[in-house]
Design a protein that fits this description.
- It contains 16 helices and four strands.
- By secondary structure, the protein is mostly helical.
- The strands form two sheets. Strands 1-2 form a two-stranded antiparallel ribbon. It has a two-stranded antiparallel ribbon with strand order 3-4.
- The longest helix is centred in the C-terminal third of the chain and has 44 residues.
- The structure holds protoporphyrin IX containing FE (HEM).
- The site of protoporphyrin IX containing FE has 13 residues, from helix 7 and helix 15.
- It is found in: Membrane.
- It is a single-pass membrane protein.
- One of its GO terms (molecular function) is oxidoreductase activity, acting on paired donors, with incorporation or reduction of molecular oxygen, NAD(P)H as one donor, and incorporation of one atom of oxygen.
- Keywords: Membrane, Metal-binding, Transmembrane, Transmembrane helix.
Amino acid sequence: MELIDIFIITIVAILLHLWWRHFSTSGMTNRRQRNLPPGPPGWPIFGNLMQVVLQKRPFIFIIRELRKKYGPIFTMQMGQRTLIIVTSAQLIHEALVQKGPTFASRPPESQTRKIFSAGRCSINSAKYGPLWRSLRRNFVTELINPVRIQQCGWIRKWAIENHINRLKTEAAEKGFVEVMSNCRLTICSILICICFGAKICEEKIKTIETVLKEVMMMTTPKLPDFLPMLTHLFRGQLPKARELRRKQMECLVPLVRKRREFVENGGNPCAEMASPLGAAYIDSLFRLEPPGRGSLVEEELVTLCSEAINAGTDTSATTVEWTMLHLVLNQDMQQKLYDEIVATKLYLIERQRKLEEKIQKIIEEEEVRMLRKEMIPRAQLMPLFDRPFFPQR
Ligand code: HEM
């Protein structure tokens, strides 16, 4: 290497160093000006994005390391998006509960995500406001409250029977069973039945599960979500997203139409439609008129049902998978868990029996009260005194 080359490299290195320091300190000043928590210095434009990408490690490991240095709350500049990482239970409570409305809204949607959210008409994409409130309230009252969960017991029973049969067949054929794919299928079948009130064949469940998984993968944050200025470089994604949306509509619209027909016919028995009128999530969506949207159209109905199925399938199946792993690793827990399940089941049966007894007693008491009311005349004219006579109880 010639002397001049060394000189040029040294100058370039010094300039790069100055440039780096200038941007990282101006980043810090900027951060202070915006009153943000401290955080690792970032690169110009990319912020901490490339540091995260280049580490090729799960994000959670990077967070654990940064936490040691910056404390329980810190800022990461991911391209044009600012992330505030909160890692202590107390701060999480303060941010999400005490100051919930301040942080409740969602970041802007990418073009791809907008295709699947029918223009932000889903609970996890709508801006914090009347639309979100209406969708969220409906979701909680119609789907995730203890009474509804108990009412759906027959769906879980049906799905678990299918699950066990599938595991037995698979174990006999292959000598082993696949935990995740089986759990996904079973949970997906439960959620399809909760959403559309339909018990459909395994083939159709598999198709819906595969398509919705693709939707989930396609809508996970990608580079343009952090660097919107690169969106035009990823324009090729849009036709793929539209094609996937077409597939999603193709497999779910028939269920929407069948359920609508069932509801319009007053719940007349029909093949596939297993849950009674008003019991499926979509029945409530047919009636719902969220502010600024009016009655929901098929696009929006598919989006809202897909959201519930997708949000519930992966999370629940992953939870089961991890539970199974821990049960295999800590085998003494298996007996404890079994005992707990049996004890809970017995407790629930006993509680149900007591509840039924109580209801029966209330019904009987009410019957006796009505009988007494009918048997004892309110006022009788006494022939002797020509004025009403009120019998004493
Ligand atoms: C073990 C199971 C589950 C876990 C760990 C889990 C976890 C979460 C988390 C962390 C969020 C917040 C995500 C965010 O704000 O970006 C969320 C939101 C949500 N989850 Fe779940 N979930 C589970 C089961 C379910 C099930 C079974 C359903 C549907 C029946 C469901 C439907 C939703 C919906 C609709 C949202 C969006 C709520 C909103 O933005 O207000 N989840 N879930």
